[in-house]
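Possible race condition, two jobs.
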Amino acid sequence: MQTVASLDELDLAILRALAVDGRLPFRELARRVGLSTPAVTERVRKLRARGTITAIRAAIDLRHLGVALEVSIALNVAGGRLAEVADKVARIPEVVRCRRLTGDACYLIDAAVSSTEHLKLLIDQLAQLGTTSTSLVIATPVPERLPLGDKPAPVRKRAAKARR
């Protein structure tokens, strides 16, 4: 697994730019980081091959899918049932992410529902698996981002193309 320490500033600049716009054309990406298009293409290929870039996804406004409420649900499960519960949670369509935790809860489940009635049904379903504690998301002051800071891309001057 590649770590931030094993990535150079150009790789980090490429990752920052793609995190903001995964559909950025290689030509524009190259311009932003000060490399040639083939050099950027090769770096992105290597980042994918190493598993640093695992996917390019669309950011979707959940309201357009009929989602009115986003919730986080802590789920505590009796020992020995963790894998079984994780498998069941993975099959619930409203669940958008489930993370295994240390501490009081075993899992933190992020879910999206269309109404408070829909939320009640989801909580009832999860309560069959363990003890739940639900929190309603009222704002997202820090949206999902890479933990790399906002360091700008290094400034590199490309050699002028020779004229014939």
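Job #2 (started ~2 s after job #1):
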Amino acid sequence: MLAIAPTASISNIAGTSSCIEPFYANVYSRETTSGKFTIVVKQLVEELKAKGMRSEDVKNQIINNNGSIAYINSLDGLVDKALYKTVYESDPLAQIDIAAAWQKHIDQAISRNLYAEESRRDKLGDVYMYARKEGLKGTYYCFIEKTIRGEKYTQDVNKRGDRK
């Protein structure tokens, strides 16, 4: 039997995204039973470093844009912004297409979250019907952008203190 990993918690430890999902954003915080973690997309950091664009100003622009680099004009032509889209910048049907391509080779159902902008709320039924038509055995959670927002990055993200 073929299944895919990692889970959300394991992906934080391994420094990758969960399963076949894109990163939620290029900078965000995530809380698990192990604590609260700041997630930074290492590939973007390395690319910004290599191109001489890693700076406090760029970091703050990414944070102020909810982890997106789409509207940072200084990166135009230097960074392939399509590689670093946030989950809400990815079309839900494209998310289904990616999962469906994998599902053909996976025995278990792919535990794939869906992310949609508020403006697509009324079309989610169509998205789920498309998922079924494309052969997905199931989906996981559906997050609507207006309802779910990543917390802004701070230096001290574990505000609850040490867990025992």
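Residues 8-144 form one domain.
Logs attached separately.
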